[in-house]
Amino acid sequence: MPTVFLALGGAKLPDVNDALRKSFYFHCQRAKNEQQQPPQILTGRANMTTSTPVVSTTLDYPRRQGKVRDVYDLGDQLLIVSTDRISAFDWVLPNGIPSKGVVLTQLSRFWFNQLSVDNHMISTELPTTGEWDDAARENLAGRIMFTKKAEVIPFECVVRGYLEGSGWREYQDHGQVCGIALPGGLRQCDRLAEPIFTPATKATSGHDMNVSFEFMVNALGADVANQMRDLSLQVYNQGSLLASERGILIADTKFEWGWHDGKLILIDEVLTPDSSRFWPANDYRPGQAQPSFDKQFVREWLMQSGWDRNSPPPVLPDDVVQQTSDKYLKAFEMLTGHALTSGG
Ligand SMILES: Nc1ncnc2c1ncn2[C@@H]1O[C@H](COP(=O)(O)OP(=O)(O)OP(=O)(O)O)[C@@H](O)[C@H]1O
Ligand SMILES: [Mg+2]
Description:
Elements: E1 3-8, H1 16-21, E2 26-31, E3 40-41, E4 54-59, E5 63-65, E6 69-73, E7 77-82, E8 85-88, E9 91-96, H2 100-114, E10 121-123, H3 134-140, E11 144-148, E12 151-152, E13 155-162, H4 165-174, E14 176-177, E15 180-181, E16 191-197, E17 200-201, E18 209-210, H5 213-220, H6 222-245, E19 248-260, E20 263-267, E21 276-280, H7 296-304, H8 318-336
Parallel strand pairs: 1-3
Antiparallel strand pairs: 1-2, 2-4, 5-6, 6-7, 7-11, 8-9, 10-11, 12-19, 13-16, 13-17, 13-19, 14-15, 17-18, 19-20, 19-21
Helix pairs in contact: 2-8, 5-6
The protein binds adenosine-5'-triphosphate (ATP) and magnesium ion (MG).
């Protein structure tokens, strides 16, 4: 993949405040969507357009790369950078999606501020002091979150308000979803009488696996499992009510929880198009698949591309990249009521 590197001078530092007073290494890798271009060294800001996706960052801290986020360990805090990487069918695709990472961070910020639940967010601003280079600021702006460092509880807390995806498939085969029996005669994408909690294990590699609530109780104890279920349902109910007033149905979503100072807190991203199915309320027609604001569009393109899902995925065409970026931006705008700027 053609890449562009940008290196700025710096030093390894023990904590955020120190880091911000001194300079540091920032090394940013941006991918062009055209695969055939040779690598290019940037010498200034002139080429750093916001339409060029940021697919990888390297700051001078211990880094863990998830499929989408670069997570830096700052000691007592984390610095989570949402890149423009996109994953589908457990593969990270070769293209980045312009602005996607900023949408993810800013939408999570919006929800953390709206939702009445303890969460990991500390700040989404780069402090104004300190020698963060202009180019580093430009690349990181809007896509970072300083967070509390939690002990992650390895369950994906999935809440479904509508019947689609693996829930719909399981219902067709067995009349239930993750051990929860549902009434007969439901159609694809039907709204459920009550949202249901259908956890999955958070696999360190490969697929997450749907499990029953009893499995979660056995693993974590009834108290903690009940708390995670009740809080997940509460957050879904609060979020989906607000979203529906703004024209978006949140069909389903997944949350992650962690321990911090002996308290259960909401971590990771929340109610974004990556962690949820978002449907335009106006076009909702149960009994069929729905148009969506999430990456379903990319999944569909991949499925019709002839890709076997066992080998590296194909490059997305420019118009698919652009339309996907537009969908993320549109979801952000509808939910928050304003257009995205790098500062949110
Ligand atoms: N406050 C937090 N404390 C500790 N870890 C966190 C916190 N918030 C998020 N994380 C972890 O950071 C990672 C975010 O990266 P990303 O979402 O790209 O990973 P992923 O590919 O979805 O998942 P994973 O790499 O865990 O399989 C996740 O592993 C998540 O569990
Ligand atoms: Mg994740």
